[in-house]
Amino acid sequence: MVRSHKDDSKKRRALSYSLFLLILLVILAFVIFHLMLFSDMQGGKGLVRKPGGTTGDDSGVIIGGGKSIDTIIDLSQLNSLENKALVPAGTKELSTGYGREIVEEAVLEVSVSWAEESGNDSNINVSGTLNVFSTAIIEGAVEYSELAKIEIIAPENISLNGDPVLVKFIITLAEPSEEVDYSRIIGKNIKIFTTYHIN
Fold first, then answer.
1. Rounded CA gap, 108 and 57, in Å?
2. Of 76, 109, 126, 164, which has the fewest beta carbons less than 10 angstroms from its beta carbon?
3. How confident is the model at residue 38, as a pLDDT?
4. Is the pLDDT of residue 56 over 50?
5. How many CB atoms lie within 10 A of CB 13?
6. What is the pLDDT confidence band of residue 59, given thresholds at 50, 70 and 90?
7. Residue 100 half-sphere exposure, CB side, CA atoms within 13 Å?
């Protein structure tokens, strides 16, 4: 009988030890996940807020210490284009929107900030040159993506930990040379791949 009591005691200690290790592993996994999720904002890339925020298409990009961030703007997700059909420039009168309003351009403004960790006094009154590069892809008709044109209106400078600046995107479609090409892009979604970089 004494022997089984010792065996039970050993089993309980082993179980307690195993439970302790399991809890420790879960906490460690949570800490690693948290660091992976939030480390880009503190030391590197930045943060992208989804378009379609509190004021419609009010979207925001915060560039982190890495001074560069890549984003994707999905035109189908923008409130300003809800129930609208983007058609090639000069074809509005000839186009059918199938119940949607026909537009020849899509306009989007993105609020861009440059922020690094606070507490660094050497970052006071620092400014940089903001460069914005974009490429448009027509989903389901990638071979026609050159028909999607993007005009970017952006300020030249941005201040570290200063007020956000507005970057304006004007997206238009060029008219395809052949009618068969037009039928291949009609109704297709456009995604804008954008890089914000600070020199």
1. 7
2. 76
3. 44
4. no
5. 10
6. low
7. 17
Euclidean distance between CA atoms 81 and 169, whole angstroms: 13
Span of 15-24, 93-102, 125-134, 141-150 with lowest mean pLDDT: 93-102
- Please identify which residue in the block is written with the tokens 């590069």: 133
| CB 128 within 8 Å of CB 158 | yes
Query: 98: exposed, middle or buried (C-beta count within 10 Å: 0-12, 13-18, 19+)?
Result: exposed
- DSSP collapsed to 3 states, the chain: CHHHHHHHHHHHHHHHHHHHHHHHHHHHHHHHHHHHHHHHHHHCCEEEECCCCCCCCCEEEEECCCCEEEEEEEHHHCHHHCCEEECCCCCHHHCCCCCCEEECCEEEEEEEEECCCCCCHHHCCCEEEEEEEEEEEECCCHHHHHHEEEEEECCCEEEECCCCEEEEEEEEECCCCCHHHHHHHCCCCEEEEEEEEEC
Minimal CA–CA distance to 69: which of 36, 35, 114?
114
Cα distance between residue 194 and residue 181, in whole Å: 26
